[in-house]
Amino acid sequence: MIKEWNLMRAVACLSIVFLHSTTLIARSVGHHPQLDLYRFFRIALCYATPSFIVLSIIILANRYQNKLPDNFWASRFKYIYLPFVSFAIIDALVVKYFDPGAKLDQRILDNILTGNYEGWFILVIFQLYFLHYFVIKFKPSLKWLFPVSLVFMAIYLQLINSDSITNSLLLQFRDTWKLPFLAWFGYFTIAFIIGKHYKIIAEKLLKYRWLTLLWFFISLSILYLSYKSGITDVNSRRLDLYPLVLSIIAVVLAWGQLIPKSKIINTISTYSFGIYLLHWQVQRVIAPYIADYFNNSIARITRLFFISLFISMILIKIVSHLPLGAFIVGNIKRKKKTKVTQEPVASAA
């Protein structure tokens, strides 16, 4: 595995855990900041989920430029989709624990069919797998597909984020509008281009690595101006996140080439899929206790971040040794000869 890919996966994973640490602490202490730098910081951290998606397609396009292997769909079903289903059930059980009046069967069904929990991005990933299959089979020109994808994504995101939508039925299903591939179309095409030409692009990124930092600060400024204009929703369905996502990926892929291989980074990268699925449930349980024990918000968030990360990795390790553990947390016990078919989401893309 290319080391900067592992670094990107680890950075995105940790960003997600930190973002949700701020969410759960805010819920626990009843603090919901609206117009402050704390909220802007949380918006910026929303770059992480699109980064997971982009990295998945980069790796997919780099490895399978002409044809998918015969066991592609079977391995993705076993080690990506089945963990999605497993945590859809786990999430429903946790909801039932906190709210005995919740309908368990309905919650499970909603989680599986509409991604009504933190694992929703897997439904997006599978759509992009099919889109990748379409592109390598019919070979449309990316010279027109890339700009077209940006236009469609921009129109779709503008539509689903519009305040003019008043239809009660549409509003009822608003949270599921992030699932159709149109919301991620522009991410897919740029990721496909990067993956297909990764060797050349990686060399350019390394050569002009200082410019990637400039790009990052410009894209962060664009997001801040958008935030100050009144667009304050904390989610990854913001069009103004697009340049920030690409700039952070560029920074990590550029500077990551200079960073020595790290066992810690590789471990977090390996566990990232399981961490992504599990940490939210861990945080829901322990956040109230941490919020009660510490008085300072920074101390609360920091401790929730590290404790939930540690507990998640321990639980993933334990579950991975169970007979069917790989179908719950993904396959982290990879061997070199099988790593292509048994990697977690962002690496098995």
Task: Tell me the layout of helices and strands.
Blueprint: H1 3-29, H2 37-45, H3 48-63, H4 72-98, H5 104-114, H6 121-138, H7 142-160, H8 168-172, H9 185-196, H10 198-207, H11 209-228, H12 242-255, H13 263-293, H14 297-320, H15 326-329, H16 345-348
Helix pairs in contact: 1-3, 1-12, 1-13, 1-14, 3-6, 3-9, 3-12, 4-5, 4-13, 7-9, 10-12, 11-12, 13-14
**H and E string:** HHHHHHHHHHHHHHHH
Report the sheet with the most strands, covering strand number, pairing sense and barrel closure.
none
Radius of gyration from the CA trace? Answer: 20 Å
Helix content: over 70%
Helical run tally? 16
Detailed description of the structure:
This protein is mainly alpha-helical and 349 residues long. The chain has 16 helices and no strands. Helix 1 packs antiparallel against helix 3 and helix 3 packs across helix 12. It starts with a helix and ends with a helix.
Keywords:
mainly alpha; about 350 residues
